[in-house]
């Protein structure tokens, strides 16, 4: 047997050597893995790759039955009702008018069929704001507005008028707009808010009337340097002590020929005087 072993081994070597020669050497096999991937057909350029079907942005869900429409939220009370004075406030205000000597009458509540926000809950029709100081044609307003006008006229307008040439007595106020259901003027906005005139809070003064001199119209009087300019400037400045809004010539074009005065209530008592 020992004699045949080398022969057998040789035979095995000879027959096996053919197989070994045809196989890739082991070290080459390790390299073969990546190489084998190279044998795959080259990837197609992306542009050629057909895009996967795009998913819809929102999956369409089965239609739900519609919920019944919610009832429209109820609006608050009309603006004019919000301003209704308490009995105590109203009594206090009327007492002030009595002390001032105002001539007025109480009239029924004012409302407007075209705009439910317009109106005055407890309107007064004032003809004389002080004894002998007429509101030309009379005017409807809230008591607060009348009271502000009365104190301003008593404490500043009349004494100031006495400083004009010939010391005239202030006997009247020519009015522009008083109560009027409308939007604010001169704001330039497409949908301006409700004017304070629509609530009885505002009054426009177009001219001051005197007993023995010509009316003094409100107009641009910048740097005319006379007493009339001084009077108009003083009137406008002191009005801000009683009214919360004072506009006039120079504020905007809509106010070039009158003083707009109102008692609009703002947060922290803020005033707009121009
Ligand atoms: Zn006005």
Q: Report Rg.
A: 46 Å
Oligomer: single chain
And the CATH topology of the domain at 91-183 and 192-273? Answer: Muramoyl-pentapeptide Carboxypeptidase, domain 2
* N→C terminal distance: 130 Å
The total count of strands amounts to: 11
Name of the CATH class of the domain at 91-183 and 192-273:
Alpha Beta
Overall mean confidence score, pLDDT: 81
Q: Judging by the overall fold, what is the CATH architecture of the domain at 91-183 and 192-273?
A: 2-Layer Sandwich
Beta-strand residue fraction: 15-25%
The biggest sheet, with number of strands, parallel, antiparallel or mixed sense and barrel status, is: 9 strands, mixed
Secondary-structure class: alpha+beta
Which small compounds were modeled alongside the protein? Answer: zinc ion
Approximate helicity band: 25-40%
Shape: globular
Write the layout of secondary structure elements.
Layout: H1 5-22, H2 26-38, H3 79-82, H4 87-100, E1 103-106, E2 110-111, E3 119-120, E4 124-130, E5 133-141, H5 143-161, E6 170-175, E7 202-210, E8 216-217, H6 227-239, E9 245-247, E10 259-262, E11 272-273
Parallel strand pairs: 5-6, 9-11
Antiparallel strand pairs: 1-4, 2-3, 4-5, 6-7, 7-8, 7-10, 9-10
Helix pairs in contact: 4-5, 5-6
Bound molecules: zinc ion.
């Amino acid at each position: 047997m020992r004699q045949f072993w080398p022969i057998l081994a040789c035979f095995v070597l000879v027959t096996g050597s053919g197989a070994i020669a045809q196989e890739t050497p082991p070290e080459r096999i390790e390299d073969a893995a990546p190489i084998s991937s190279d044998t795959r057909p080259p990837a197609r350029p992306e542009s050629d790759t057909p895009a996967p079907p795009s998913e819809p942005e929102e999956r369409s869900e089965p239609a739900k039955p519609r919920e019944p429409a919610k009832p429209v939220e109820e609006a608050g009370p009309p603006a004019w009702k919000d301003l209704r004075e308490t009995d105590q406030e109203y009594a206090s205000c009327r007492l002030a008018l009595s002390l001032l000597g105002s001539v007025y009458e109480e009239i029924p509540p004012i409302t407007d069929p075209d705009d439910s926000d317009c109106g005055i809950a407890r309107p007064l029709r004032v003809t004389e704001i002080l004894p002998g100081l007429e509101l030309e044609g009379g005017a409807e307003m809230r008591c607060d507005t009348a009271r502000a006008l009365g104190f301003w006229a008593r404490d500043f307008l009349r004494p100031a008028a006495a400083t004009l040439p010939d010391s005239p007595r202030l006997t009247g106020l020519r009015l522009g707009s008083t109560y009027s259901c409308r939007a604010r003027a001169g704001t330039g906005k497409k949908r301006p808010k409700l004017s304070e005139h629509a609530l009885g809070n505002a009054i426009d003064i177009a001219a001051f009337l005197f007993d023995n001199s010509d009316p003094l119209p409100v107009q641009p009087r910048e740097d005319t340097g006379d007493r009339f300019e001084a009077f108009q400037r003083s009137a406008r400045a002191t009005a801000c002590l009683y009214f919360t809004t004072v506009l006039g010539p120079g504020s905007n074009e809509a106010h070039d020929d009158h003083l707009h005065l109102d008692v609009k209530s703002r947060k922290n008592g803020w005033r707009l005087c121009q």
